[in-house]
UniProtKB/TrEMBL annotation:
Transmembrane regions: 68-89
Name of the featured protein: Dihydroxyacetone kinase, L subunit
A matching Pfam family: Dak2
The keyword Transferase is assigned to this record: yes
Any one GO MF annotation of this record: glycerone kinase activity
Domain of life from the UniProt record: Bacteria
Alphabetical UniProt keywords: Kinase, Membrane, Transferase, Transmembrane, Transmembrane helix
Taxonomic placement: Bacteria, Pseudomonadati, Pseudomonadota, Gammaproteobacteria, Methylococcales
Any one Gene Ontology cellular component term annotated for this protein: cytosol
Xref: PROSITE patterns: DHAL (PS51480)
Domain DhaL: 6-205
UniProt-listed GO biological process terms: glycerol catabolic process
InterPro entries given in the database record: DhaK_L_YcgS (IPR012737), DhaL_dom (IPR004007), DhaL_dom_sf (IPR036117), Dihydroxyacetone_Kinase (IPR050861)
């Protein structure tokens, strides 16, 4: 694994910084087709995670995923809270008692994204965060199984995330609040897809540094 939970305080700091930097733009996206609270919801979760960061740094990955999931579930309201909690709790379930490796993570991550799909009854093409998480999970798994070098894996994952965000622009929203707008949801990228991509980019930067 390129990162241990000891790096969690740095990771969450980097995620906080990117969300703060792009907060206004994300709010505008969620205002255009949602209720405008998305970045605030995530920032609440990030603050809660920061307050537990040293504790999480002392755990192994499976225990860290569980703690992250429970913290996010308690702190974040809105659709994104239960979806991210599902992602992390599923990561706990699928990494427990497995060797700590990028192969284990890539497989667990794809299962976790599948759990998010199930939880939100959504899939790619519905203008949600899944338009980033699904291709990212597939790209990660493929690049890892091809035995690519870490920097190549990171480049490919970041490219998949960017393409995923952009793909949401002309989609019709069929899940979440944006679906209430029907055709008017077209023409704006999805806020949850954008924050997913920003967080992936921040994590990749931390791994590279
Ligand atoms: P809320 O819509 O409850 O205000 P947020 O604003 O925090 O919650 O999150 C909205 C984001 O959640 C959307 O931009 C979209 O990416 C994602 N989302 C909403 N519903 C779903 C769903 N059923 N499956 C996957 N992602 C969803
Ligand atoms: Mg919202
Ligand atoms: Mg809301």
């Amino acid at each position: 694994m390129p990162l241990s939970p000891a790096k969690f305080p740095d990771l969450i700091e980097a995620i906080s910084a990117t969300l703060n930097e792009h907060a206004d733009a994300i709010t505008q996206l969620d205002q255009a087709i949602g209720d405008g609270d998305h970045v605030f919801n995530l920032q609440r979760g990030v603050e809660a995670l920061q307050s537990h960061a040293t504790e999480i740094a002392d755990l192994d990955w499976p225990a860290a995923w569980q703690k992250i999931g429970m913290t996010v579930m308690a702190a974040i309201g809105g659709a994104s809270g239960s979806l991210y909690a599902t992602l992390f709790i599923s990561l706990n379930k699928n990494t427990k008692d497995k060797p700590v490796s990028i192969q284990t993570f890539a497989e667990a991550f794809q299962l976790a994204v599948a759990a998010v799909k199930q939880r939100g009854k959504a899939d790619v093409g519905e203008k949600t965060m899944l338009d980033v998480w699904v291709p990212v999970a597939e790209t990660l798994k493929r690049a890892v199984s091809e035995g690519q070098q870490l920097n190549v894996i990171l480049d490919q994952v970041c490219a998949a995330a960017e393409a995923g965000v952009e793909s949401t622009r002309d989609m019709l929203a069929t899940k979440g609040r944006a679906s209430f707008l029907g055709e008017r949801s077209k023409g704006h990228i999805d806020a949850g897809a954008k924050t997913a991509q920003l967080m992936i980019e921040a994590i990749a930067r931390q791994i590279r540094s």
